[in-house]
Amino acid sequence: MKVGLIRCLQTEDMCPASTCLKVMKEKKLAFAEVEEDIEVVGVNTCGGCPGKKAVTRAAEMVKRGADTIALASCITKGSPIGFPCPHADQMKQAIAKKIGDTVKIIDYTH
Fold it and tell me: Contact 24/68 with Cβ under 8 angstroms?
């Protein structure tokens, strides 16, 4: 599995994505059922509210080999401070429309 990770711009200054990367490496939580090796192809932010840049950034990671886009838990669950993105569903739908149905989208990491 080759993963492109999209994270929240506003959370970036307080979270170094270490838990997201750790659960991928250890194949836990959202990655618990992954049997193949996991390679991180890229890590980027949504670009800030309302997350429009996440669409082109996800597409660029797919061009660079990602077969899976993971939306970090800061976007969908509000980790670490409890403020999920109000645009998370719309962002996910726009990404799916842009990259097609051959690329898997994971809506959280931990």
Answer: no
Tell me how far apart the alpha carbons of residues 61 and 11 are, in angstroms, rounded to a whole number: 21
- At residue 98 the predicted structure's pLDDT band, cuts being 50, 70 and 90, is very high
pTM score, two decimals?
Answer: 0.95
Evaluate whether 89 touches 20 at the Cβ level (below 8 Å). Answer: no
66 Cα distance to chain centroid = 11
Question: 21: burial class by Cβ within 10 Å (0-12, 13-18, 19+)?
Answer: middle
**Residue 81 has what pLDDT?**
86
Asked if 74 and 35 touch (Cβ cutoff 8 Å), the reply is no
Phi and psi at residue 3, to the nearest 5°: -110, 135
Q: Give the span between the Cα atoms of 44 and 54, in whole angstroms.
A: 8
Render pLDDT for 42-55 as a digit per residue (tens, 0 to 9). Answer: 999 999 999 999 99
